[in-house]
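Notebook, student rotation project (T.W.).
Task set for the rotation: take a protein with a known small-molecule partner, predict the structure of the complex, and write up what can be learned from the model alone. Partner molecule chosen: zinc ion. Sequence and SMILES entered below by T.W., checked by me.
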Amino acid sequence: MNAATAEGLLHLIAAEPTLLASAPADPDESDLHLRVREGRHLCLGCGQPARCAVVVNSGAHGPRWLDLCSPCWQTVRTANVLFGEVEGAGGPAGADGQAGS
Ligand SMILES: [Zn+2]
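Predicted structure of the complex:
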């Protein structure tokens, strides 16, 4: 996934947040880790098993899960600097040492 694709993905989420599963209103790090450890979510960017989970605040539809693999998370995070929609509560909960900001 490149930066343009990531930005498109973020715009899609903003337009159609119901594509994503509902997330807790105030997720903490354990919620993020639990989501990743369920191990049955696929990366929204490329379809690989997701290794990170972040929460997107979608306004009227409330918080939503965004599941991503590590490379796609990096791309989305970079795009998100410009777009400003995704709020990872303390960063992604990954099994690869990325947790925490
Ligand atoms: Zn991916």
